[in-house]
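> example.struct
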């Protein structure tokens, strides 16, 4: 059982015989570790946390209607981040937003790149489910929030750590789905080769809003407008 792309790649390099279940991998097919998401064909399958990027940009439009200039930030060495970043570019184009892509390769670049985002006078920052930036989202927020640039992020954990809001995958549900796959393979009911990659639908997504960040960015949030949201207030 391998969580995130680097772990899956390491497991795949170690064996082509033992079944491997991945979790929190955005797109298995683009990693070239499976023949296709529908028919993996080898010893690897799992559950995908493909971010609902279009829904997140819809959320951005609803919550920040005056935002016209969006920064798209991700780690340029993570395959999943590149995949989501391209989706974000398409979503920005569809909404007629001015956008610019900012890439980091390691934690040492985050402060400088985030400062550049502020200097470029962006209205909002979008960060997908990126492993590096999820770890250092508080460092990003320490620069963007004082500049009143809210961050729409890829998943709820990033909101808890300093992002403004997300409409993202429920990772508990994702783990359950991966566990079901593992059980079926262990019982001999399926093989990894013929088990399609699982993708969660919109019902398994969670709306999360950080009220502390909203207040510091000067954004008024009426809880009644978001009855299904999880609010972070600390």
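> example.seq
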């Amino acid at each position: 059982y391998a969580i995130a792309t680097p772990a899956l790649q390491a497991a795949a390099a170690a064996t082509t015989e033992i079944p491997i279940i991945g979790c929190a991998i955005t797109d298995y097919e683009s990693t070239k570790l499976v023949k296709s998401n529908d028919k993996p064909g080898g010893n690897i399958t799992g559950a995908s946390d493909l971010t609902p990027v279009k829904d997140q940009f819809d959320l951005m439009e609803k919550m920040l209607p005056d935002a016209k200039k969006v920064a798209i930030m991700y780690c340029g060495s993570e395959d999943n981040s590149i995949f989501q970043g391209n989706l974000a570019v398409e979503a920005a184009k569809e909404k007629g937003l001015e956008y610019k892509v900012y890439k980091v390769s390691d934690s040492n670049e985050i402060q400088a790149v985030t400062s550049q985002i502020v200097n470029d006078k962006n209205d909002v920052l979008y960060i997908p489910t990126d492993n590096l930036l999820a770890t250092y989202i508080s460092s990003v927020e320490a620069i963007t929030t004082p500049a009143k640039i809210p961050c729409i992020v890829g998943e709820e954990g990033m909101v808890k750590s300093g992002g403004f809001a997300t409409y993202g995958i429920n990772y508990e549900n994702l783990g359950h789905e991966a566990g079901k796959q593992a059980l079926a393979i262990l019982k001999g009911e399926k093989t990894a080769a013929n088990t399609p990659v699982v993708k969660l639908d919109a019902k398994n997504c969670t709306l999360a809003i950080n009220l502390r960040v909203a207040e510091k960015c000067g954004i008024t949030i009426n809880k009644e407008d978001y009855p299904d949201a999880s609010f972070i207030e600390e």
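> remarks
DSSP finds nine helices and eleven strands in the chain.
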